[in-house]
Amino acid sequence: xxxxxxxxxxxxxxxxxxxxxxxxxxxxxxxxxxxxxxxxxxxxxxxxxxxxxxxxxxxxxxxxxxxxxxxxxxxxxxxxxxxxxxxxxxxxxxxxxxxxxxxxxxxxxxxxxxxxxxxxxxxxxxxxxxxxxxxxxxxxxxxxxxxxxxxxxxxxxxxxxxxxxxxxxxxxxxxxxxxxxxxxxxxxxxxxxxxxxxxxxxxxxxxxxxxxxxxxxxxxxxxxxxxxxxxxxxxxxxxxxxxxxxxxxxxxxxxxxxxxxxxxxxxxxxxxxxxxxxxxxxxxxxxxxxxxxxxxxxxxxxxxxxxxxxxxxxxxxxxxxxxxxxxxx
Length: 329
Prior knowledge:
CATH architecture of the largest domain: Alpha-Beta Complex
Number of strands: 16
Radius of gyration: 21 Å
Structural class: alpha/beta
CATH class of the largest domain: Alpha Beta
Distance between the termini: 11 Å
CATH superfamily of the largest domain: Medium-chain alcohol dehydrogenases, catalytic domain
Number of domains: 2
Number of helices: 10
Order of helices and strands: EEEHEEEEEHEHEHEHHEHEHEHEHE
Largest sheet: 7 strands, mixed
Shape: globular
């Protein structure tokens, strides 16, 4: 089999290694698509330590079962699956049979990657979005646009998207947002009647439906940076909910104490529990199967195994038009 591993800062190398055999409770999967995740960006940027082995990345896998180990009889050779595990930037991977689900019929592998939408669905499932709710998504990259689609399955009354990138705001409107704001427009928006700001009314085709208070019942933060938290806080109404879904790996990530005085609820959108993530993945894949969630406008770039560095470069540079890259070995 072939595998791409990071050998130094910003440099990966494809190597040939023996194809592993599945052990008890495992399956061998031929990888058809593997998503490039921002959580792996830092290892790619820094590379391994001088005395360390190369780094194998990729954990957003869709593939075809090619061999089944003892105790994994629920799977058959030839079935398309997605789930948890890795490394994904390779032609094959051995995965835990209990951490896999079938790819919905008629959905191409690159549009059925279960891991990222499972983490989003799990976070949304613990957030009180009800029919008619006012929901705001701050940060309209891959995660934010995914959250926007998952929030829409709950039949909110109003969907608000916030991002400094005009391309991202246009994508949000195309995916069902009623309002698309630049972060600089948020203060005027929450102080007015919901129609303030250039793109708030015009781009969405009119003023915002709902009550006179333009603030949201639920705000989903998907930026992973402190300015995103600062933008999200004033959008939360009194006794509303802020769900922090963005990965705040560095810095202090301070919260606006106005959330305290507003009686807001804070939800940690991260989930370390595999059974919960797999349950959420099942629900998320149902949304994919019913076309209520689509990867089509989110997967903007595809690369072969020898171009992993090109995919990470686009992500690191925040290249125009980039949302999500997948590796197709």
